[in-house]
Design the sequence.
């Protein structure tokens, strides 16, 4: 089984609701296995408001994210990048390293490098770069270096395609989240502001239903009712221990 990593999982995505949509079921299963869950967003999703200003939307969405995190007794952090205008820079990488160290992250989950949304791709780059050097003593932040580089995993984009529609490498594993869909949907339900937004932005009348359907579609591929999908970052620079797959072995399906 190899080295064991600290049982704190940091779900580090771009916007409030990304964690809930793509990996909340898996986080609940990990929590039930004794993990501490931390949820962080690079932005507060300030553009995601229809009848509120950017500032008002930021305030509202941080509240929604906090309530969703509370369901898993998870801490919630926001790095206050600007929604829709997220750029990779020194400051935000250092803030990301500080957070990983502060919570002593053993496992980090972020977007896939070829996700459909540019904020998601930027987040992936920031998180991957930050995680890569989070154990190095020369990084100029106040927190003590992590003992070891955390394991890095990637969550699903909206579909199993890259931004121009080509099929991507199949998920490394599927997690059967059927038994925890209630928890996942409860967490999503706190993001009420997104229902109206999705109606305008994507002509999507039932945002929560669409998220649930995505899990049903992934589940259908492997013969369960609902599944979340993941890739482990195995391209170099990170450890290859399969801790999530081992600890959730009863729920893991590989194809
Ligand atoms: Zn997002």
Sequence:
């Amino acid at each position: 089984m190899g080295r064991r990593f600290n049982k704190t999982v940091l779900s580090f995505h771009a916007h409030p609701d990304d964690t809930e949509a793509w990996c909340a079921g898996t986080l609940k299963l990990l929590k039930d296995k004794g993990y501490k869950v931390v949820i962080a967003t690079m932005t507060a999703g300030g553009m995601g408001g229809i009848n509120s200003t950017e500032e008002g939307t930021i305030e509202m969405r941080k509240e929604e994210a906090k309530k969703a995190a509370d369901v898993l007794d998870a801490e919630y952090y926001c790095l206050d990048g600007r929604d829709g205008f997220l750029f990779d820079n020194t400051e935000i990488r250092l803030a990301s390293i500080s957070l990983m160290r502060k919570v002593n992250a053993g496992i980090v989950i972020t977007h896939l490098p070829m996700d459909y949304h540019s904020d998601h791709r930027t987040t992936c780059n920031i998180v991957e770069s930050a995680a890569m050097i989070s154990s190095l003593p020369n990084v100029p932040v106040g927190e003590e270096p992590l003992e070891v580089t955390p394991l890095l995993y990637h969550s699903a984009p909206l579909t199993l395609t890259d931004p121009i529609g080509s099929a991507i490498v199949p998920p490394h594993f599927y997690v059967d989240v059927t038994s925890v869909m209630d928890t996942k949907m409860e967490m999503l339900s706190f993001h009420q502001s997104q229902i109206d937004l999705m109606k305008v932005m994507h002509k999507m009348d039932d945002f929560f239903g669409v998220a649930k359907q995505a899990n049903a579609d992934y589940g259908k591929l492997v013969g369960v009712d609902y599944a979340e999908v993941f890739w482990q970052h195995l391209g170099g620079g990170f450890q290859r221990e399969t801790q999530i797959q081992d600890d959730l072995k009863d729920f893991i399906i590989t194809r």
User: Anything to note?
Assistant: The mean pLDDT is 95. DSSP finds eight helices and eight strands in the chain. The beta strands are 8-13, 36-43, 75-81, 107-110, 151-154, 173-176, 227-232, 252-253. The chain has one domain: 8-253.
